[in-house]
Write a structure and sequence with these properties.
The protein has a single domain, classed as N-terminal domain of TfIIb, CATH 2.20.25. Helix content is 16%, strand content 17%. Strands 1-2-3 form a three-stranded antiparallel beta sheet, with no helix packed on it. A two-stranded antiparallel sheet has the order 4-5. The longest helix has 9 residues. The relative contact order is 0.12. The model has no long low-confidence stretch (mean pLDDT 76).
Length: 95
């Protein structure tokens, strides 16, 4: 399946495996990022070995301080935090 650029409608797109991005080669826009890497990093000679070595996960990214290894819980905003009393909010910040 050929992917088209949403900006210039070019079909000249490529996947950069080092950065885990799909990029338009004509205008340079990043079409998709942080894609899941489903390729094997190992060899398996039978079903049991392959079953033990299954893996999935995001690519590492150099655009984040922890290379994309962190976990985010909830949304990015702290709007619910301001519904708490000041003492509860202070204890949350100490965590």
């Amino acid at each position: 399946m050929s992917e088209k650029c949403p900006e210039c409608n070019s079909e000249n797109v490529s996947f950069d495996s080092k950065r885990a991005e799909t990029v338009c080669n004509k205008c340079g826009i990043v079409i998709d990022e942080r894609q899941i890497d489903t390729t094997q990093e190992w060899r398996a000679f039978d079903y049991e070995q392959r079953k033990k070595r299954d893996r999935t996960g995001s690519f590492l990214t150099y655009t984040r301080h922890d290379k994309g290894l962190s976990t985010s819980i909830g949304d990015q905003g702290y709007s619910d935090l301001y519904k708490l009393s000041p003492s509860k909010r202070a204890s949350f910040y100490r965590l």
